Amino acid sequence: MKKIVKIANGQGFWGDSVQAPVDLINYGKIDYLTLDYLAEITISIMQKQKMKNPKYGYALDFVDLIQNNYSTLIKNKIKVISNAGGVNPVACAKHIKENLPNGSINIGIIEGDDIYNDIDKLIVNGADLSKIFVILPNGQAMLLKRKLFQGDISSRILPGSTIVVSRNPDPFNWLNLTSIITPVLSDLAVSAAAIAAISNNN
């Protein structure tokens, strides 16, 4: 077993320069290369792509990166860890293998967290829509309520905001203390999100 394991990150967002990971692959003398592609808006874009074409929904430039550098990755024994698969990791892995020699690389994916088709059911059964909080980038929290004659509420949600939907305690009323505990947990979640928002902007 190696005494020192070298891990490097070569991507900060979808659309970041591809030169950094290429240089790390060729000259970094690393064991693991991590690549971060996702953010809230990135996932929404990928989901729209997948809805238009079920073969998409992932970072296409990641596919090019692996296909163009796979021989060096193998030669230098570099393992790549990435969330570039977005909302369609199966299709991403399949696309990568399409133009590579059969069996040249091993690709592992993680799936099972796609709740897109269950969102409506989850909202109806599990969310308290009267307690939706928005944590602004400056850490300020506000209760999001739609009122009569009110305009588009999305205009008050700034980029970088965090949305916290409280759990509806009604399905768990068989627990005597659930109705008390749930609002407390909701407040803790809002506080944690506020602290995280402030930390990310400092």
List strands and helices in order, with pairings.
Elements: E1 7-11, H1 19-27, E2 32-35, H2 40-52, H3 60-75, E3 79-82, H4 89-98, H5 119-126, E4 127-135, E5 141-144, E6 162-167, H6 178-200
Parallel strand pairs: 1-2, 2-3
Antiparallel strand pairs: 4-5, 4-6
Helix pairs in contact: 1-3, 3-4
Descriptive notes:
The chain is an alpha/beta fold. It has 2 domains: 7-98, no CATH class; 118-200, no CATH class. 39% of the residues lie in helices and 16% in strands. It is elongated. The two termini are 39 Å apart. The mean pLDDT is 79.
Give the low-pLDDT segments: none
Find the structural class using helix and strand composition.
alpha/beta
**Contiguous helical run count:** 6
Beta-strand proportion: 15-25%
What is the ordering of alpha helices and beta strands? Answer: EHEHHEHHEEEH
Helix content: 25-40%
What is the average per-residue confidence, as pLDDT, rounded to a whole number?
79
Characterize the overall form.
elongated
* Count of individual domains: 2
Task: Give keywords.
202 residues; alpha/beta; 2 domains; three-stranded parallel beta sheet; 6 strands; elongated
Write a brief structural summary.
This protein has 202 residues and is of the alpha/beta class.
